[in-house]
Design brief:
Distance between the termini: 22 Å
Order of helices and strands: HHHH
Radius of gyration: 17 Å
Shape: elongated
Number of strands: 0
Number of helices: 4
Structural class: mainly alpha
Largest sheet: none
Helix content: over 70%
């Protein structure tokens, strides 16, 4: 396995988990009886969209050879992961009842995945930039 390939795989897996997870595993509440959606649905949609971007950037890292570009992608993941962690219930309000699925399942799952994405990205950025200085 090439040097750094493990980080590429970890970032891709976390990104796909974020993207697919909000759709299939830890999605927000179901539609109302009249077919309309609660606010938490829109938080799910935004998290899904950013997760798709994370997935594409993580996939692109497999084909990039320049460590500075890879480090730049990792650096960009950090503030974006923090932003995504604040989408459910901070930037986009969730349901009023704290017992709803969006509060008990979606929000904590998004938070954990975003913290992991940010942590891996910070470590990867440091390693890539230090190895670049040694050259």
């Amino acid at each position: 396995m090439k040097k750094g390939a493990l980080v590429n795989v970890i970032l891709l897996v976390l990104s796909i988990l974020l993207c697919a997870g909000v759709k299939f595993a830890f999605h927000a509440c179901a539609p109302k009886d009249d077919g309309s959606w609660m606010l938490c649905h829109w938080a799910e949609q935004v998290v899904f969209s950013v997760g798709a971007v994370f997935s594409l950037l993580s996939l692109a890292r497999f084909f990039l050879k320049d460590s500075k570009i890879k480090a730049g992608i990792s650096i960009s993941f950090v503030p974006l992961s923090i932003l995504v962690a604040f989408i459910p219930n901070t930037l986009i309000p969730l349901c009023m009842m704290k017992e709803m699925r969006c509060h008990t399942v979606m929000r904590p799952s998004v938070l954990v995945l975003c913290v992991l994405l940010a942590a891996v990205s910070v470590i990867d950025s440091i390693v890539l930039l230090k190895s670049e200085k040694k050259k």
